[in-house]
Amino acid sequence: xxxxxxxxxxxxxxxxxxxxxxxxxxxxxxxxxxxxxxxxxxxxxxxxxxxxxxxxxxxxxxxxxxxxxxxxxxxxxxxxxxxxxxxxxxxxxxxxxxxxxxxxxxxxxxxxxxxxxxxxxxxxxxxxxxxxxxxxxxxxxxxxxxxxxxxxxxxxxxxxxxxxxxxxxxxxxxxxxxxxxxxxxxxxxxxxxxxxxxxxxxxxxxxxxxxxxxxxxxxx
Length: 220
What we know:
- By secondary structure, this protein is mainly alpha-helical.
- It has a domain at 29-69 and 116-210.
- It has helices spanning 2-43, 51-79, 97-106, 126-141, 184-219; strands at 166-171, 176-181.
- Mean pLDDT is 76; it is low at 2-14 and 84-114.
C-alpha cells in the first residue's frame, strides 16, 4: 500500500509538472505566435483556408518559430525550477521533462485527430518561385516605401492612431479572453514582411492566371 501511494504521488507530481510545462509553453512563445497569426487573419489578408497562404507562412516564419522554440526550451530547462515554478520534487528530472511531454500526454488524448491544414507550393516550377522571391526581396529592400497601402500597416489606418501593441486572444475550454502583448519592434516588421509578401504573391499568381487564360483563348 505504501509503495502504491508513493508511486501515485510521484505520478501526480509528474503530471502537475507536465501540465505546468504546457502552460509555460503557451505563456512562453506559442501564444504570441498564435496572436500574431490571428492578427494577420483579422487585418492583414491571411486566408487560413488558402494553401498558398499557408505555404507562404511556412516560408516566412517557420525558421523563426523553430528558433523561438529552441530558445524557449533552453531557457525553460535552465530557469523553470525557480520562482513560482520551483521544483520541490528532486526525483523528477526537469532536464528531460519537455522531451517526455508528448509521451506522457498521449494517453490523455481522447478526441478525434485534428485535420492538419494543407499547404502547397503555388508555383508550377522553380523558375516561377525564384521570380517571386527576387521580386519580394527587391521590394523588401525598398520598404517602407514599397509596403501596400490597403493592409492596415500604417498608424493612420487604426482608430487609436497607432499600430496596436497587443492582441486579444481566446484561450482554454472556458474561452477566456487574454491580452497578449506583441511588442511592435518585433511583431510589426513581421507583419510588414507578410503583407508585402502576400501582396507580391497575389499579383504574380494573378498575372500567371491571366496569362494562362489568354493562352487558352488563343489556342481555341
